Every structure is written in structure tokens, then in C-alpha cells.
Amino acid sequence: MTKSQGVVYQPPLDTESEEILCQYVNATSHLQVIKINNIDNYDWEKVVFPGQRILFNTFKRAELSIYSTAQINTILIDTIDCKKLKVDE
User: Fold this and answer.
1) Which of 6, 23, 11 has the alpha carbon at shortest distance from 59?
2) Is residue 2 part of a domain?
3) The pTM is what?
4) Is residue 14 part of a domain?
5) Is residue 31 domain-resident?
6) I want to staple 62 with a disulfide (CB 3.0 to 4.6 A). Which of 13, 14, 58, 89 is the partner?
């Protein structure tokens, strides 16, 4: 897979939540780990390479936590509401 290609992930169905298509781009020169873990029974994690774009479906209330692996350990660098990452279709 090249950097210009995205990866699409489909979450399990949740009839109480609206799903949205989101996009995240790792604009750094470091490997990142992104996670959604603020929703009960829904833990999702992906490794994102420098320059990689990832598309994913998730719940509107989800929060994306972004961890940098620039050092020997992983550090939380940001948390973004997935509503802000929504792709306009």
C-alpha cells in the first residue's frame, strides 16, 4: 500500500449512534498510533505511517486519540472529536 492510499475500517453496528466517515492524515515524520476508546465495548487502534491518509467509519460521538512514537515510548499528543474529521460526501 502506498502513502496515497487510504485504509477503510467499518465499525460494528450501533443502532443508537449515527455513523460518520472520517479522514485522518499523519502529517508528521513519525509513526503514529491512533485509537478510539471512549465508547463502551469499542476499542479500535491503527498504526499510521508518516504521510499516510486513513479513512474510517465510526460513531459521531467518538474521539480519536493520537499517539506519537518519535521517542522510545508512546506519548499522547492530541485528542480530536471525530466530528471534526468528518468527510463531506
Assistant:
1) 11
2) no
3) 0.74
4) yes
5) yes
6) 58
Give the span between the Cα atoms of 66 and 81, in whole angstroms: 11
Grouping H, G, I as helix, E, B as strand and the rest as coil, residue 12 is: coil
Contacts of 18 (CB under 8 A, 6+ apart): 59, 60
Residue 3 resides in a domain: no
CA 79 to mean position of chain CA atoms: 10
Phi then psi dihedrals of residue 55, to 5 deg: -105, 140
Residue 15 has pLDDT above 70, yes or no: no
Question: Total structural domains in the chain?
Answer: 1
Q: State the residue range of the domain holding 17.
A: 8-85
Domain of 25, CATH number, reads 2.60.40
Q: Residue 18 — pLDDT band, cuts 50, 70, 90?
A: confident
Percent pLDDT > 70 in the chain is 79
